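Format notes (please read before filing issues)

Several people have asked whether sequences and structure tokens are stored in separate files. They are not. Every record keeps both together, in the order shown below: the sequence lines, then the token lines. Line labels are part of the format and must not be stripped during preprocessing.
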Amino acid sequence: MKLLVVGASYRTAPVATLEQLAVPPADLTRTLDRLVAQPYVAEAVLVSTCNRVEVYAAVTGFHGGLGDICAVLADQAGAPPAALAPYLYVHYDAAAVDHAFRVATGLDSMVVGEAQILGQLRDAYHSASGADSAGRLLHELMQQALRVGKRAHAETNIDRAGQSVVTAALDLAADLLDGDLTGRPAMVVGAGAMGSLGVATLSRLGAGPLTVTNRGADRAVRLAESYGASAVPMAGLVDALTTVDIVVAATAATEPVLTREVVTRALARRDVARGPLVLLDLAVPRDVEEGVAELPGVEVIDIDRMAGILADGPAAADAAEVARIVAGEVEAFLSWLRGADVAPTVAALRGRADDVVAAELRRLAQRRPDLTDDQRAEVARTVHRVVQRLLHQPTVRVRQLAAEPGGDQYAALLRELFDLEVPQTSPVDTVPDVVEAEIVLPADTTPPTGGAR
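Then the structure lines:
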């Protein structure tokens, strides 16, 4: 079984493509079921956030698994696989582990070091566990990724500024509003995790009064009460927009909430002396209709715009230290993985030994029917002890050797020497240990070997 990651993120795809690929919470279990129903996909975890859509999978063949995952993603996006190819990346085996750990620590985030991705990764893992799509390999990968993410935040100051996509977006908004959000009336559309973070961050920055709206009114009321804000029904969205300077839009809606019509009606009644109406669209699919950015008196900051502005920003001071932590943890995980790979071979060897002992004891019983039950039992115990002692040191040593780089050769040698029948991976898995590349579709006979994005 091999690890494979296929996905798209703010680094490789525009918001429009991420919108196509995004999997709503209501469809998550169904999509996971479809993934593990594919011939080459044995396990799957799906991460779908405003910045990325990724499938972590345990596959029995590289090309087969790649084709299966791409087929599901293409169907989700409603586009042919070839149309998605320029935006997708592939990480295989060691590179897949490295990517998972970098994501968990925030090194791969738009805002380096942001801690929100750790919660999003945990939610994705819990969803996969609930859907029974995560098996032994992905359970171990996800648990270790979450542990590594926590370690990075505990041992470094990579998140010392409380960075998140929300804080970064609000920093950009402040630049459009005289550099300060204090006393600026603001509204949050959406009462989920991102919406809650938006209300908390606006409150901390001194913005106010604050308003919360959500399709589910009860959630909006509970969130508003927690921060001394006001809750308004979604039907009152136009009225609310006339009284605020900043809007954080972060719903799970599949269609835009802030349409051109809604914003135009609000602008017609809004005092132009207030300055621009700043709309922060942190949702995927987008909450702000595309044409809204063309309206006079409106500034829209979405994921595309943030990626362009933050791309040249300073890296977190502790990013190098976190990268060092990740490198060490990746090697530790790969050592475990190599040791786990040799386990079936060791089990097969011990099984072969048990079969040989059992056959010899049956032969002894036929040749010496005069032996008592106690005598037969003593002979059996003696033979088993001899075999176990003979096998103990070689099997311990082969586990140690297998945990080292290139250790798979020892398991292969053991299988050859003892003619062991151990289920093997598909021949298409004979690829370099590290594969990090853009996806190539249609798949040829050689796995991608470079050009990672």
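For reference, the curators noted about this record: The longest strand covers residues 2-9. The chain is about 50% helix and 15% strand.
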